[in-house]
Write a structure and sequence with these properties.
16% of the residues lie in helices and 31% in strands. It is of the alpha+beta class. The strands form two sheets. A five-stranded antiparallel beta sheet has the order 4-3-2-1-5. It has a two-stranded antiparallel sheet with strand order 6-7. A hairpin with a 3-residue loop joins strand 1 and strand 2. The longest helix is centred in the middle third of the chain and has 11 residues, at 62-72.
């Protein structure tokens, strides 16, 4: 019995909650089998998936596959960037300094050496390490 080649308009549902639609075929590369989908979008896209990445193939009409393809087409790679973080400290970029130990928003290494953990602010000019100790004066 001859092996039948798969070639159907279909909707693919992939791991990661992705859905694509287009002309689905089989393709072998280097002896490994892949599912190929040609997505009729603008611009057209072709993607290959290992069979294990697909959890559902729904054969459908070409018209429906084209409609779904437009709504779920793969997007070009975009770089996502976050805005630069604001300078630490209170309004106006002022960097806080503990009135007892002198630690700042940028450096609490002295508190870590003393207590084994980073400090936090309990008042505008008093860190948690000094608020809970009897450390007199300022200095590291």
């Amino acid at each position: 019995m001859a092996e039948q080649r798969f070639e159907e308009w279909a909707i693919l549902e992939l791991m990661g909650h992705r859905r694509l639609a287009g002309l689905v075929t089989e393709q072998t590369i280097g002896g490994a089998s892949f599912i190929r989908i040609d997505v009729p979008c603008d611009p057209p896209a072709t993607q290959l998936y290992a069979p294990g990445a697909i959890y559902c193939i729904t054969p459908t009409t070409e018209q429906l596959a084209r409609q779904v393809a437009q709504a779920t087409a793969p997007r070009p790679i975009e770089r996502w960037e976050l805005p630069a973080p604001a300078k630490p400290g209170l309004g106006g970029g002022k960097i806080r300094e503990c009135r007892i130990c002198g630690c700042t928003d940028e450096d609490c290494s002295g508190c870590i050496e003393r207590t084994g953990e980073p400090c936090y602010w309990v008042e505008e000019d008093l860190c948690s390490a000094c608020a809970h100790s009897d450390m007199p004066g300022k200095g590291r």
